[in-house]
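Re-run requested by the PI after the first attempt was lost when the workstation crashed. Everything re-entered from the original request form. Ligand of interest: coenzyme A.
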Amino acid sequence: MSDLDVRPVAESEFRDANSLFLRTLHIPPASDDQWERSSARYEPGRVLGAFVDGELAGTAMAQSSSLAVPGGAVLPAGAVTNVGVRADRTRRGALTALKRAQFADARERGEPLTMLHASEAVIYGRFGYGVATRARKVRLDRARAVPHPDVPAGGAVRLVDAATAEKVLPEVYRRIGLTRPGMMSRPDGWWRHRLSALQQNAVVVVHSDDHGVDDGFALYEAKANDYRFDDGMITIQVGDVQAADTTALAGLWRFLLELDMAHRIEAVDRPVNEPLEWWLTDRRQCRVTGVGDDLWLRLVDVPAALGARSFGAADPVVIAVRDPFLPENSGSYRIGPEAVRCADDPQLAVGVDVLASLYLGDVSVSELVAAGRVEVRDPAAVAAADRLFATAEPPWCGTAF
Ligand SMILES: CC(C)(COP(=O)(O)OP(=O)(O)OC[C@H]1O[C@@H](n2cnc3c(N)ncnc32)[C@H](O)[C@@H]1OP(=O)(O)O)[C@@H](O)C(=O)NCCC(=O)NCCS
């Protein structure tokens, strides 16, 4: 019987943890340069190691962040990443032990939420995570994607170098604010890691409004096919577009659609309701090539998380929450206009993973009733619960971590 122990790793062990994680994704250890960039995201005390018989066998870390929830509150939330267990030590409970330790740590830090992007969709439901936002990937043929005359003209755009981007982008992102449920703050270490990529091939465009205030940016890279043996296409791969309003967003998209020597534009992680189709004279030129799960959310402290979001206008509904992994969350909650624990008979019952999917408003209660994921004890409660959890627009994260 081997001995499994989980503890925060020392700073001197960060690189070992990073190498172990990369190997679990079949990536070789980082070079000194890569590690220099990557290490900015490692926060002392938040990098956990699972040790089997004293040897590092698995790791998981979190970055201190925060998440916007419906109603405008922004809650402290750990952004979990770099999760991996050595291939010769899997399926012995190392991840389970790491998750337990991470949840306990989140509670101690006063973080009611924890979030991640999942490498595989089958891993995290058992720990109480649910898909809470989705994002889409779009492809546009630049020559045929002609902006509609009604698209806002947008303001001025300018290309900036890496040093300027390092200063301006975090400021612009802060100025934009976490205006939409699902948006998260970007820790300094996240920015250092992300912007270090600019020394390579990425291009940064900044948009400013009529008063000269920067209010949006886009990052992209160009990928070219061989012009003799392939189709010679140049694809602009857009990785991050952030804008304070639709004028800035339209201005950035106009810039991308008017780039010379660009045949295709591909953008990932875009909001499912971005009005691109409506901005084109031929809406079919915006090809949605995929809609995928984006942010996975875990309500570590269910009463605190429910108490922090606002709910729509409808009669209150009593929902029973089952949380086998953190049983202290299990119980009945009366939802709307506030959410409180109660002793009333539940009208609906959900697992805590399903509650996480409902929490930001990405999916309706009735959709999950149809999917068999919500147990209905009082059918009249479904329509009311739909109205309570509904949000004005779908949530969107927009930050890869
Ligand atoms: C995903 C990973 C971390 C799981 O670690 P682990 O130590 O094997 O997980 P555990 O032993 O604690 O497993 C807990 C349960 O989850 C299941 N599980 C874990 N990973 C799974 C996977 N990839 N697919 C299906 N089931 C999985 C286990 O079978 C186990 O089920 P059980 O409780 O019914 O027995 C590990 O497989 C890994 O490193 N994968 C490659 C890297 C990766 O994908 N990391 C995640 C990045 S988001």
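Saved to the shared folder this time. The radius of gyration is 23 Å.
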